[in-house]
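Async update (no meeting this week)

Hi team, since we skipped the sync, here's where things stand on the single-chain job. The sequence we agreed to prioritize is pasted below, unchanged from the tracker. I ran it this morning and attached the output directly underneath so nobody has to dig for it. Comments welcome in thread, and please keep replies under the output.
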Amino acid sequence: MRAITTLAVAVLPLLLGVPAAASHAGEATPDPATCPMHAQHTAHAADTAQPDAAAADLDRRGDAAMGFAHERTTHHFRLAADGGSIEVQADDPADTESRDQIRAHLADIARRFAAGDFASPFAVHARVLPGVPEMTRLAAAIHYSYEELERGGRVVIRTDDPAAREAVHAFLRAQIADHQTGDPG
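Output:
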């Protein structure tokens, strides 16, 4: 009878889907070698770490491609009825180094996008973002301009073409999602 009780106590949490940490209650430190769910714990830990690793990779690539540190700046991707904008500003008003790097980068981005060159977003995101193929194909219908802001700059993207506008919005929504800016999509 005691063997059945011991088996029930060991197996019941697994059958009920109780997290393995709870099934080790009372043990000082669970031994991975004796944990029947060790492989699942390890896989779950890797799965939950992946978004953090992906975000860190995105930030690292972004810092290299943009020429300024994401920790010292704030990005916004704004949708508008006629297109949208990419805005970046230095967090600290006294951080003129970041401000100047932002301005140089965004002025260059406006020129590159107007020429159909989307290498920078590819370098940051390690993929072709949604909307980019259509923005490239519909380049004649899209106008890019650069505007200086007090602590940085803005690339304004305008179009009257409905298909181009949808492409611009898809591109900006992908940026919002990847950079987790919280901007309305």
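Quick observations from my side:
Confidence is low (pLDDT under 50) at residues 1-27, 37-50.
The beta strands are 73-80, 83-90, 142-149, 152-159.
Reply here if anything looks off.
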